[in-house]
C-alpha cells in the first residue's frame, strides 16, 4: 500500500523528524560553547568568555535556517552540515562584530561609571545589532550575496518587509524571556523550534529580496 505523502500524519511525522534532527545537529555544533557556559561563573568579569562562546551560535543559526528551508525530501542532517560548512566564513564575518558590540555594551554597563541614559542607549544599540545580525544570518542562509553587499541587502529587506523585521524583534524578545523566566538550557532545547519560527517569520523579507535584488538567471528562492 502506497503511503500518502501529502497526508496530515505524514507531514506531522516529517516535521517532528526534522525538528529532532536539526535540534541534535544544533546542539552538537554548539556543544563546546554550551559546556563552557555551563561551567562559567555568572560574573561580569567573564563577559569576554561569554562573548567567545556566543561566536559558536552564529554559524549554527544560519545552518539551522538553511536546513529548515530545504525541501522535505532532503535529509536535514546533511543539509544542516552543508549549510554550516559553506556559510561559516561569511557568518563569522558578520557575527563577530555583532557579538563584539553586545559584549562591549554589557562590559560598560557592568563597570563603566556613566549615567543611566548612556547605558540604556548602549542596550538599544546592542539590541539593534543583535536583530540585524540575525537578519544577516538568515540572508546568508538563503542567498549568495557578497559580504560587502550584505548590509545594503538587509536594509532593503527590512525596509520592504517591516513586519518581518518586527517578527525578528518579537522572536528575540521571546528568546530573552525564556532565558529570564526559565533558563538558558530551555532555550537550547527549543532551538530547532525557534529556528523554524525564524525561517517562517522572515519569509516575506526573503521574497522581497528575491524579487528586488536577485538577477534573472540566478537561482530563485527555494
From TrEMBL:
Q: Which residues cross the membrane?
A: 15-41, 47-70, 91-111, 117-143, 150-173, 179-199
Q: Which UniProt keywords apply?
A: Membrane, Transmembrane, Transmembrane helix
Signal peptide stretch: none
Superkingdom of origin organism: Bacteria
- Presence of the UniProt keyword Transmembrane helix in the record: yes
Q: What is this protein called?
A: DUF624 domain-containing protein
Recorded source organism is: Nesterenkonia alkaliphila
The taxonomic lineage of its organism, from the top, reads:
Bacteria, Bacillati, Actinomycetota, Actinomycetes, Micrococcales
